[in-house]
Write a structure and sequence with these properties.
By secondary structure, this protein is of the alpha+beta class. The strands form two sheets. Strands 1-2-3-5 form a four-stranded antiparallel β-sheet. A three-stranded antiparallel β-sheet has the order 4-6-7. Strand 2 and strand 3 form a beta hairpin. Helix 1 packs across helix 4. The longest helix has 17 residues. It starts with 6 loop residues before the first helix and ends with a helix.
């Protein structure tokens, strides 16, 4: 994996993906993330790298998490998605939105690996209970909040290790930019439907 991809390239790719997804009926949203130590808060010098694709389907109420990673200094202990409307976009930290302490079945005790799981967002077990409580008290409102936070760059996926217990590598959800205009229509439709 190349660590030379720059933020502009990543945001442009996210805009293209989000724009295509939104144009196809505003039901499926896709984010491509590059995970690194410098993206953590606080930044670290880990040589570890990773990529992740997050696919949120507002019709099926699912979130697919696909990730691969390598070169970690410590062995994996957990991984999850953090999100908050109070987080400053692309910086800072937020509470865990997804399952705690980790995604079910995520490989632990390794320095490289991959993961692919689809979560049913209508089930409370797919979430951190504290995130549901802080975002309307039910899974439908938690899903709408997560979509909004991912769209605005207020969410990230990170992988925690024995060397960096607060997170060795992470990838922030990029703002879809121009795609957000189309996607916001989908977000409004999701809120009206509920």
């Amino acid at each position: 994996m190349s660590r030379s991809l720059n933020r502009t390239t990543l945001v442009a790719a996210a805009v293209a993906v989000a724009g295509l997804s939104a144009a196809a009926g505003a039901q499926t949203f896709v984010w491509s993330l590059v995970l690194s130590g410098p993206a953590e808060n606080p930044p670290n010098a880990s040589p570890g790298v990773g990529v992740a694709t997050l696919t949120l389907d507002t019709t099926a109420h699912t979130l697919r998490v696909e990730t691969s990673f390598s070169g970690l200094l410590g062995t994996t202990t957990m991984a999850h998605i953090h999100a908050s409307s109070s987080m400053v976009p692309f910086t800072g930290t937020a509470g865990v939105a997804s399952q705690t302490p980790s995604f079910s079945g995520f490989p632990t005790g390794v320095t490289a690996g991959s993961y692919d799981m689809t979560f049913n967002l209508s089930l409370p077990g797919s979430w951190n209970a504290a995130y549901i409580a802080a975002n309307g008290g039910n899974t439908a409102s938690a899903e709408a909040a997560l979509l909004s936070q991912m769209m605005s760059g207020r969410a990230y996926l990170n992988i925690h290790t024995t060397a960096f217990t607060g997170g060795e590598i992470r990838g922030l959800t990029p703002t879809p930019g121009a795609g957000a205009v189309l996607a916001l229509g989908g977000l409004a439709a999701l809120r009206r439907r509920r």
